[in-house]
Automatic annotation (TrEMBL):
Protein name: Alpha-L-arabinofuranosidase
Reaction catalyzed: Hydrolysis of terminal non-reducing alpha-L-arabinofuranoside residues in alpha-L-arabinosides
Any one GO molecular function term: alpha-L-arabinofuranosidase activity
Domain of life: Eukaryota
Signal peptide: 1-16
Length: 361
């Protein structure tokens, strides 16, 4: 997302999580007993209508954006950006059924030690070595806060940054008129990797050891490069189940902008988080997720943009493992008549797309 210039009733009780550990994760690919055969080459999705929008609660929020989502013991936990003309911050809400997601109470994280001021584009995961939840976001730098209990919105600590010396030189050298945005962390058995974008065609990657995380992040390198609008922002990287027979283990998604200004997602795969990345469904004719491979309720397209979002995770730890057999993607969309004259005040809403053509049949 762009930096600011300058279905059941509402879940009303605290989730009974241990104070230091999340519930056991689901073993996603136990039914396969190992790596899958051939990975998919195309995707077809079914979308809901808009599920979550800004509330008329005195906050003056215009849009809800950039969701990060995990599912724990039947409850979905969502972190998102709140957008309005005056700036961005973060919100947390939870629910048990997507049909009731719009009724979930918003907990604005500027009430936590995480604080007021510019915070946007969150990513949440449980870092097993520390037995702690991490919330990654942008605040002009690549920032993070921590919390022992994901369901305690007041528990998020004050921001810390991955680059205490400020924006790395390689980003200054390449960013042009873009913005440094959309930080994303994923770990393997040895290292943790930090991805970010510059809205100018570069995807960056840094790393530190698993033992040293969150400290010691290296200077970024360019992980992928393309034309500005073809490799724009909102990257996310996942461990793709147990991998595929060709050695593919990781899935990379990056948001692009088509010639009409609509947002969509391209995809790549790799055997390593450090790459190289090979194109999967990454054209407008064969996208990962775009209006032309998404079916809407009653064929009524409520948004032409499948924009910044995240795959629903049931494995909540730092490896970000997802099930290639069953994928749901919570995304931001916007109506075709939106007034784009004030980018920060655009009325983004959240919807969900569900995979219809599973590689597992």
């Amino acid at each position: 997302m762009r930096i600011l210039t300058a279905l059941t009733a509402l879940w009303a009780t605290t989730l009974a999580l241990p104070s230091t550990n999340p519930p056991p994760s689901i073993s996603l690919n136990s039914r396969q007993g190992g790596a899958l055969g051939s990975k998919p080459t195309s995707f077809e999705w079914q979308s809901t209508g808009p599920l979550v929008s800004a509330k008329n609660d005195g906050r003056g929020i215009a849009g809800i954006k950039d969701p990060s989502i995990v599912l724990i013991n039947g409850t979905y936990h969502v972190f998102a950006s709140t957008a309005q003309s005056s700036g961005y911050n973060l919100v947390y809400f939870s629910f048990k059924d997507f049909a009731q997601a719009g009724n979930a109470k918003f907990h604005y994280l500027d009430q936590a030690p995480l604080g007021t001021g510019y915070r946007a584009a969150p990513q949440v995961f449980y870092f097993t070595p520390h037995k702690t939840w991490y919330l990654i976001y942008q605040n002009g730098n690549a920032a993070y806060s921590t919390n022992k209990n994901i369901s305690d919105p007041l528990g998020w600590t004050a921001p810390q940054v991955f680059y205490p010396a400020g924006r790395p030189k390689i980003i200054d050298d390449n960013i042009g008129a873009g913005y440094w945005v959309d930080m994303w962390v994923i770990c393997d058995d040895k290292d943790c990797h930090l991805f970010s974008s510059d809205d100018n065609g570069q995807l960056y990657r840094s790393q530190t050891t698993l033992a040293n995380f969150p400290n010691g992040m290296s200077q970024p390198v360019i992980a992928l490069q393309d034309k500005k609008n073809d490799l724009f922002e909102a990257s996310c990287v996942y461990t793709w189940g147990d991998g595929f027979a060709d050695g593919t283990k990781y899935l990379l998604l990056v948001e692009a902008i088509d010639p009409d200004g609509n947002r969509w997602f391209r995809s790549w795969t790799s055997a390593s988080i450090s790459g190289p990345w090979k194109g999967l469904a990454n054209t407008m004719e064969n996208p990962f997720a775009r209006w032309n491979n998404v079916k809407f309720p009653d064929d009524k397209v409520w948004t032409w943009s499948i924009s910044h979002g995240e795959l629903v995770r049931t494995d909540t730890d730092e490896k970000l493992r997802i099930d290639p057999c069953s994928m749901d993607f919570l995304y931001q969309g916007i109506g075709p008549d939106a007034d784009w004259s004030d980018y920060n005040a655009l009325p983004w809403k959240l919807g969900l797309i569900t995979l219809r053509n599973s590689v597992c049949g």
